[in-house]
C-alpha cells in the first residue's frame, strides 16, 4: 500500500530512492485507484502554485534602490586602514578615555567594597546598563536632530566634520545594538549611516543634501517618538 | 566570446538595479510568504540585497544574477525569522498549534492574494516555511534541512503536515463554494 506521504514525495521527485520512484511509477500504471489518488493530489498542489506575485510597496522599492546607491558611496568613501585608524583614534579618543576612567573607577570601587557588597545583583546591573544605553541613545538622537537642523550649508568643511562625527557616534550605538542582540535597532542605525554618508558625498548637490537631511530629521523624530513609548528599563526592540 | 567574458565579470551597480526592477516584486512576494509579515519581508529584501552586493565578487555567472540574489534574499528572510522568533525551529511536537491571526498577518494576507494566503494561514510557522521552500521555491529537502539546521526527516514531517492541512482547507473551500 502506497501512502499519501510517499505520493507527496513522488510528486516532488525528492526524498525517495531511485528504486522507490520506479516502484511507485509502476504501481501508478497498474492501479487505477492509486492513479486517481495521485491525480487529485497533483491537481490540489497545482492550484497552490506561486502565480500570485505581490507588488512590492513603492516606498520600499525606492528604499532598496537608494540603499544600493548609498552602499556604493559608502564603499567609495571608505578610508585606507591607516587613515581609518587615525580617524577612529581622533573621534574615539574622548569616548575611550571616558570608558577607561569609568572602568578604573569601577574597579577601584569594586576592590574596596566589603565582601557582602562585592557581589551585586547581576539583573539589576543589566537593567541599569540597558537603561543607560537607551538614555544615551535618546540624547544622541536629540543632539543629532538639533545639529542637523542647524546645518551650515555655506561651510562645507565644517558641515563634513560635523557629519563625520555624527557617523562615528552612530557607529558606536550601532555596534552596541549588535552586541546587545538588537538587530532591528542596529539595522535602523545602519540605515541612518547610509543617509549620513550620502550627505558628505562630494558629488551630492545642495538639493541632495537637503533632501537627505530632511529624511533623516524625519526618521530621527519618528525614532525618538518610538523610544518615548518604550519603558525606561528596556532596550528598544525596533 | 564576449558573452563568455561577461559571465565571469563581477556584476555592476546598474545590473543590481536592473535585477531589482525585474525581480523586486518576486523577492518581496516570497519573503512575504515566508515571514507573513510585510515589515520583515521588506527588511529581508534589503538585507539580502546588501549581502548580495557585498558578496558580488563571488557571483560567477553560472546562474542569472536575479536567481543568485533571489536565493540570498530567501536566506535573509529565514535568518530574520529565526532571529526574531527562534522558537519556530523547535521540536515538531510543539509545532502543531496554528498561531492566532494578528493584524500584521491580515495585512500580509491582503497583500499576498487570498487563496494561497488563506491556505498558508492554516499552517504553523515551521510547516509554512517547509512548504514554501519545497513547493514554491523548489528547494531539495536536504537543502531545506541544512538551511533550517534540522534533520531531513523533520522537514518531511513538516511538509506532510502542511500538505495534509492544505488539502483539508481546500476541500472545505470547495464545499463552501
What does this structure look like?
Chain A has 238 residues and is mainly alpha-helical. Chain A is 76% helix and 0% strand. Chain A is built from nine helices and no strands. In chain A, α7 runs antiparallel to α8. Chain A is elongated. About 8% of the residues of chain A have low confidence. The longest helix of chain B has 25 residues. Chain B has two domains: 95 residues, RNA polymerase sigma factor, region 2, helix turn helix motif (Rna Polymerase Sigma Factor, Chain: A); 75 residues, Winged helix-like DNA-binding domain superfamily/Winged helix DNA-binding domain (Arc Repressor Mutant, subunit A, Orthogonal Bundle), CATH 1.10.10.10. Chain B is mostly helical and 177 residues long. Chain B contains nine helices and no strands. At the A-B interface, α1, α3 and α4 of A face α2, α3, α6, α7 and α9 of B.
In a nutshell, what does this entry contain?
The complex is a heterodimer of chains A (238) and B (177). Chain A has helices at residues 4-12, 18-30, 32-46, 58-76, 81-112, 122-149, 156-179, 183-200, 206-228. Chain A is mainly α and 238 residues long.
CATH superfamily of the largest domain in chain B: RNA polymerase sigma factor, region 2, helix turn helix motif
How far apart, in Å, are the first and last alpha carbons of chain B?
57 Å
Estimate the helix proportion of chain B, in percent: over 70%
CATH topology of the largest domain in chain B: Rna Polymerase Sigma Factor, Chain: A
Q: In terms of structural class, how would the helical and strand content of chain B be classed?
A: mainly alpha
Q: How far apart lie the N and C ends of chain A? A: 53 Å
Radius of gyration of chain B, CA atoms, in whole angstroms = 18 Å
Largest sheet descriptor of chain A: none
Strand content of chain B: under 5%
Classify the oligomer.
Answer: heterodimer
Mean pLDDT of chain B equals 81
Order of helices and strands of chain A: HHHHHHHHH
